[in-house]
Amino acid sequence: MKKTKLQQMAARRLPPLNALKAFEAAARHLSFVKAARELHVTPAAISHQVKGLEDFLGVALFRRGHRGLELTDAARASLPKLSEGFDRIAEAVERLRAEADAATLTVSSAPSFATKWLAPRLHRFAAAHPEVDVRINASTRLVDASRSGPGDAGEANSTLDDADVAIRFGTGVYPGYRVEKLMSVAVSPVCSPALLTGRNPLRTPEDLRHHILIHDNLATEDGRPLWEAWLELAGVQGVDLSRGMRFNHSALALEAAADGLGVALGITALAAADIAAGRLARPFDLALPLGAAYYLVCAERACERPDVAAFRDWILAEAKATSAQ
Fold first, then answer.
1. 5-100 sits in which CATH class?
2. Residue 24 pLDDT > 90, yes or no?
3. pTM for the predicted model, two decimal places
4. Of 24, 167, 161, which is closest to residue 90 (Cα–Cα)?
5. d(CA 311, CA 125)
6. Dihedral, 17, 21, 176, 183 alpha carbons, nearest 10
7. Topology of domain 119-132+178-325, per CATH?
8. pLDDT exceeding 90 applies to what percent of the chain?
9. 3-state SS track over 198-243
10. Cβ atoms of residues 257 and 190 within 8 Å
11. Under 8 Å CB-to-CB from 83, ≥6 apart: which residues?
């Protein structure tokens, strides 16, 4: 009986996969050290795997040249196909993972944005798309390499944190991803409505001298504290910026302001719901633009999925409504 092509391939004696991975990485980098870093092993392990592959195949794959490692003719000829093979394996695994997670849409977002803006609106997405289960990953690793996040301290990271889509704060430069702007960001003083009356009512920016300022770790593009930049914009001097409460999340600063502990510089989009509910008030209309924005980010392959496309259309519409308000 004639064997099928799959049976013929299975009958072949293939080298160990780890040895092929070690060779492919070392050949791409022309360095055992860089290959080891990519595969999270030691250079000695890469050398051992490559030597085992050479013994298995009976052919040399590398030679030492004046400028370091060089590929032999046999290695150079096989590398493109081998790299293509690993790319196809990775693509197949991603498709399997996507099928397994098809019913769940994972969204990565900074904690303050997730708490103050995204979560209060999710009921509308759930009502429109009951077939999609949404998982929110509130992550502090949600900033681009050029900025710190809006009140969320964390390590700069340009990946999606294993999410299907991410909402990021920054300049919008995320190479290799599809990026769409959600909304620009500005900050304005917010406080408990109780501070608008009483012993030292907040009527003009100069009245801030009599109140505690609440700080978070968000800064201007040139690194200045936000209160310093806003007071300069308002033309106010003589306010002590060294005092006051400090928080590493914008949501915490807004909660402290709502509790009457002082005046915070709130991101207008994040404070809007509390202002509408009467928990916060804006004593002054002057807002300081930050030169940054919130962006929707997703991998190109994921953007065409029906659940991702539905979430994209929904959140862009919500962001447009917020900007209009």
1. mainly alpha
2. yes
3. 0.62
4. 24
5. 7
6. 70
7. D-Maltodextrin-Binding Protein; domain 2 (3.40.190)
8. 57
9. CCCCCCCHHHHHHCCEEECCCECCCCCEHHHHHHHHHCCCCCCCCC
10. yes
11. 24, 28
